Amino acid sequence: MVNLQSRSLRVYADALEYLDQTRLPQAEEWVRCDSPEAWQHAVKRLAIRGAPLIGLSAAFVLAQYAARHPQSEWQLVSDRLRATRPTAVNLMYCLDAMEACFAQGADALAERAKALFEEDRALCQRMAERGADLLASGDRVLTHCNTGALATAGVGTAIGALAIAKQRGIDLHVYVDETRPLLQGGRLTAWEMADLDIPYQLITDSMAASLMAAGKVDKVMVGADRICANGDFANKVGTYMLSVAAHYHQVPFYVVAPYTTVDPACATGAAIPIEQRDGAEVRGATGAFGGVVWAPSDAPVWNPAFDVTPASLVTAWVLDTGVFDSAAIARGEHLRGWR
Ligand code: MRU
Asked: Does residue 298 carry a catalytic annotation?
């Protein structure tokens, strides 16, 4: 029996099933995950991805492990899960919350994981409504990577705002950055736009600046993997480039995220750990994406999964707790009441 379900996660009593995001849009394939090792493998290859979803799925894996193994092993497993992807702070948020329940036993862990899942669903709804408030009929919105229902327990973050706008009858046109090197935009966001019945056009990342120069972009909306105390934030590589182009062309640039993506302990973007990934992802399409290698097979590669956008290039931070401009961020208003 499925206890909880989102667009890309099914939670059973003793295992998870995830929608393999490397197989979309060609196939909707659900894969069983019943161990920390299986989860780590899925997260490393981005079959489970997106900051909130990584954290929530880790919480369930830990709770299910705890139900079958002695308490003396729980911390070690939590440490291993935590080290799987370093940049998205939602993973740390969820595991911190789980570890705080260790003393109360395995049942408390199961309840905590469920509460985190339900919390994320509510946070998505709140931030997406705030994001939709910023949108008007006729807006042409550019987005990057995938920030929708696939990446969260609810409607998503930046895509969540687009989805709520659609529900409100606001007519949008969305430009979807394909998002190199792993094409989360081309494969997943395009698929979600079709699912939501939102008109869209797919572009390569390198087309975004000239699209803005042509006056065809009214707003940029992206998600985040970690927002620092000063408002700098990490998101999928290519976001920084978009923010620079948006600033130059005076296009409003919004970041949409839950408070669980804010890391008050990270003073500035310089402190965010950036995951480096295998060069094969840049040399060609890795296994799930066709396996074609177009670069010399030994071409040296620099492949950071994320980049940092400085606060100075952000128009507003759209959180579940409010919409903050740079003056509010400088006053630390986004940190008030945090945790
Ligand atoms: O490497 P990914 O696909 O996990 O990167 C995802 C992103 O960068 C998203 O924009 C971010 O996690 C926000 S998702 C709601």
From this structure: no
